[in-house]
Amino acid sequence: MIASAELFRAARRSGALVLLMVAMVSVQAGASFAKQLFPVLGARGTTALRIAVAALILCVVSRPWRHRLGARQWRPLIAYGVILGVMNFVFYLALERIPLGVTVALEFMGPLTVALLASRRLGDVFWALLAAAGLVAIVGRGLHAAQLDLVGVLFALAAAVCWGLYIIIGQRVGAVVPAGVATAYGMLIAACVVLPGWALGGEPMPLTSHTIGLGVLVGVLSSAVPYSLEMVALQRLPAKTFGICMSLEPAIAAVLGLLLLGEHLQLVQWLGILAVIGASAGSIAASAPSHAPATLEVTT
Asked: Which of 35, 177, 233, 271 minimizes the number of CB atoms within 10 Å of its CB?
């Protein structure tokens, strides 16, 4: 009986790991398809379409209006939504100029920095140095070979800052607002931030059947599918396992960038991405108790 229970728990964990991998692939596939909209809509138009679709999907699924919120909930929730909108906007501006794998690896410096700053262990100095070495390998070589756009790198680092702030503010929101409600309202607020920016920019949005279909696909792949799968994985995996698996996202982005977009990186950049992954996974493995519950991080 005990052996059967252990086997069932192992099967649940294995299934959760598969779902989490599918979720990460879905997010980065969504980013790859979003990049294909840039020639038609530009980064601003793509961001507006993607967030509008995601907000619609999340609001229909979660129906957040059923929950009454007071000023105590709305204040951090508005900040959360604004950061979410800005983060997506600068991420797509970066993606317009530099490869997907590089963009995600640079953006990952945000949560990694938050984790390292929150630590008081001397051993984390090694992970910080490893992450810095990875950053230099990714950016330095690319700029030297004129393969990376400096403005795109700065946008990706801005997205990293936003992701760090997103985590800090998101923890405050999570303490006072249910997760599904926070995500749906957060995306709706993000849409209110991004849509006026696109409208004031005067850029046209040719809503053909192709662009609408691709926009819906991006919204589904980037939001509906991964959020649903990650929520299942969250219930079955400890925080340490969840975090270490999420650390693989820059590598997944680089591989999909190569396969779907034909973005070739130099060997030293691949090594830099692996260094960022190693720093993130090492920091998480050294800090998070294996029994601690995982928390959902909405990624771009």
From this structure: 271
Report yes or no on 3 lying in a domain. no
Structural domains of the chain, count: 1
Does residue 292 lie in a domain region? no
In a domain, 221, yes or no: yes
Residue among 158, 182, 161, 156 nearest 170 (CA): 182
Does residue 9 belong to any structural domain of this protein? no
40: CB partners within 8 A, 6+ apart: 206, 211
Q: Do residues 81 and 188 lie in contact, with contact meaning Cβ atoms separated by under 8 Å?
A: yes
**Per-residue exposure over 270-300, b if at least 16 CB sit within 10 Å of its own CB, e if not:** bebbbbbbbbbbbbbeebbeeeeebebebbb
pTM reported for the whole predicted model: 0.83
Please tell me the distance from the alpha carbon of residue 296 to that of residue 292, in angstroms, as a whole number.
13
Structural domain harbouring 182:
16-287
pLDDT, one tens digit for every residue, the chain (300 residues) = 455 656 556 566 677 788 888 888 998 999 898 888 888 888 888 888 888 888 888 888 888 888 788 778 888 889 999 999 999 999 999 999 999 989 999 998 888 887 777 766 777 778 888 888 888 888 876 565 556 788 999 999 999 999 888 888 887 887 787 777 888 888 899 999 988 877 666 566 666 777 888 888 888 888 778 876 776 676 677 766 777 788 888 899 999 999 988 888 888 889 999 998 888 888 777 765 554 444 445 556
Helices H / strands E in the chain, number of each: 12, 0
